[in-house]
């Protein structure tokens, strides 16, 4: 990667030295001599790496303000802080604010260039990681010939060019996030961030910090989803799970177009397009008082509804063929063709597209695509097991709500623990809980260590 380094220092000699060193090392540069020039350069185009003097012309810590400004736009950008008036507190403050490194003037040239080299490598690794994490959504497409899928593709084309808020509804596993990402990729915001705030997995009490961010007593800042998504799109997934008091704050933000961080005193304005999604019946949620109707009308400027797989049976053969091709390519296995789709067509698919994809992956791994009878047997066994699990779940209807919930949570967590061979950390990450919180939950439900 031929990286671009932004040099921000009010000392012309330092700027010249840095510029010569960096260009000699094969990187390109941009230069800013004061705070306002730096702000202009950052807003014009984010650099790959920034080198910032702590004290410029605006104040004692204006370099830290520029660091925060860059991190607000993209947390991945490495920032190296330099100072001729360094002390321990300043170094700690800059590192807590997200600086990649802190170096004191007069600096060792070789040490500084080593920092820059590592910063570029660090940025490349983060870009590669983001690309891998998004691979599913960049390569997978909306597959189907049902009227519902045809309509959704048409809606995506129409809404992508606008700045309207989008409300996406559909059952679990039907592809709500995929639809949101397809709109994002076709929108003019596709070079900005795509941030997801999942209302279903946040711990109680953390909703507002995750959304708004926080200003801590030590002066450090925790940026919330709104600021992280600035210039891009924020998807509030399972929005109906967010508490009513936080819903009120979201409504106020949508009306005022500004907010304050937790413990903050200054209004913050961000340029964000908001998408929302839910797997629940939003009308029932509003009727029961679980979701604010006025907030729904603000979020539901453009509505996209995804049908469950059982309502678009004609899509199943196409989806199977598509997943077989993709998954076999990923595992370097010769693609196979299912001769009998009857079991798939007649199944209830409570997990929708996600469940179908997981089944095809299981079939691919276990059968290696060699034997049609073997493939069919794996499908029969998997779907039969799922039906049995569904039946046992229906038996909980005979219990009071609290006991039924506890029974379900216990069975669910035991199943997940078995999936991860009793590994608490992996299970906690998968179910969206803190490790300590999962330990407490297991103890409360009477679940013993499976190891």
CATH-assigned homologous superfamily of the largest domain = P-loop containing nucleotide triphosphate hydrolases
Number of strands: 12
Q: Which structural class is indicated by helix and strand composition?
A: alpha/beta
CATH class of the largest domain: Alpha Beta
Lateral arrangement of strands in the main beta sheet: 2-1-3-4-5
Question: Per CATH, what is the topology of the largest domain?
Answer: Rossmann fold
Structural features, described:
With 451 residues, the protein is α/β, with parallel strands linked by helices. It has four domains: 4-133, Response regulator (Rossmann fold); 155-307, Rossmann fold (3-Layer(aba) Sandwich), CATH 3.40.50; 310-395, Orthogonal Bundle (Helicase, Ruva Protein, domain 3); 399-445, Homeodomain-like (Arc Repressor Mutant, subunit A). Helices cover 51% and strands 12% of the residues. It is built from 20 helices and twelve strands. The protein has helices at residues 12-24, 35-44, 62-73, 88-96, 109-133, 135-139, 147-160, 176-186, 207-212, 225-228, 244-256, 282-287, 293-299, 316-330, 342-346, 352-367, 372-394, 401-419, 424-431, 435-445; strands at residues 4-8, 28-32, 49-53, 79-83, 101-104, 166-169, 194-198, 213-215, 221-223, 233-237, 273-278, 302-305. A five-stranded parallel sheet has the order 2-1-3-4-5, sandwiched between helices. It has a five-stranded parallel sheet with strand order 7-10-11-6-12. Helix 2 packs parallel to helix 3, helix 7 runs parallel beside helix 8 and helix 16 crosses helix 17. The longest helix is centred in the N-terminal third of the chain and has 25 residues, at 109-133.
């Amino acid at each position: 990667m031929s990286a671009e380094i932004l040099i921000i220092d009010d000392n012309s000699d330092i700027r010249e030295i840095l510029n010569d060193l960096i260009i000699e090392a094969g990187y390109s540069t941009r230069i800013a001599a004061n705070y306002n020039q730096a702000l202009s350069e950052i807003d014009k185009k984010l650099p790959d790496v920034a080198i910032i003097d702590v004290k410029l012309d605006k104040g004692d810590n204006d370099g830290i303000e520029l660091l925060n400004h860059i991190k607000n736009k993209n947390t991945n950008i490495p920032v190296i802080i330099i100072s001729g008036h360094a002390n321990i507190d300043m170094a700690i403050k800059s590192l807590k604010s997200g600086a990649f490194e802190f170096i004191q003037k007069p600096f060792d040239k070789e040490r500084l260039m080593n920092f820059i080299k590592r910063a570029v490598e660090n940025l490349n690794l983060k870009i590669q990681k983001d690309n891998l994490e998004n691979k599913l959504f960049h390569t997978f497409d909306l597959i189907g010939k049902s009227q519902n899928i045809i309509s959704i593709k048409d809606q995506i084309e129409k809404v992508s060019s606008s700045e309207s808020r989008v409300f996406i509804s559909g059952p679990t596993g039907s592809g709500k996030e995929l639809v949101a990402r397809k709109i994002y990729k076709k929108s003019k915001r596709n070079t900005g961030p795509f941030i997801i705030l999942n209302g279903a997995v946040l711990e109680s009490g953390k909703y507002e910090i995750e959304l708004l961010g926080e200003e801590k007593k030590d002066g450090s800042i925790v940026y919330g989803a709104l600021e992280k998504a600035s210039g891009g799109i924020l998807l509030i997934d399972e929005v109906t799970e967010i508490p009513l008091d936080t819903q009120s704050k979201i409504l106020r933000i949508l009306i005022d177009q500004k907010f304050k961080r937790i413990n903050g005193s200054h209004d913050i304005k961000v340029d964000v397009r908001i998408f929302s999604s839910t797997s629940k019946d939003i009308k029932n949620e509003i009727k029961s008082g679980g979701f604010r109707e006025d907030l729904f009308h603000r979020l539901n400027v453009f509505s996209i509804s995804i049908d469950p797989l059982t309502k678009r049976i004609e899509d199943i053969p196409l989806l199977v063929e598509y997943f077989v091709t993709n998954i076999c390519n990923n595992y370097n296995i010769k693609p196979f063709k299912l001769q009998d789709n009857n079991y798939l067509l007649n199944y209830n698919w409570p997990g929708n597209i996600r469940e179908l994809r997981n089944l095809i992956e299981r079939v691919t791994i276990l059968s290696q695509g060699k034997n049609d009878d073997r493939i069919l047997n794996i499908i029969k066994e998997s779907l039969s097991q799922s039906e049995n699990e569904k039946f046992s779940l229906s038996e909980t209807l005979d219990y009071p709500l609290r006991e039924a919930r506890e029974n379900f949570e216990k069975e669910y967590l035991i199943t997940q623990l078995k999936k991860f061979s009793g590994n608490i950390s992996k299970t906690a990450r998968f179910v969206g809980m803190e490790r300590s919180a999962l330990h407490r939950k297991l103890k409360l439900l009477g679940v013993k260590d499976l190891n």
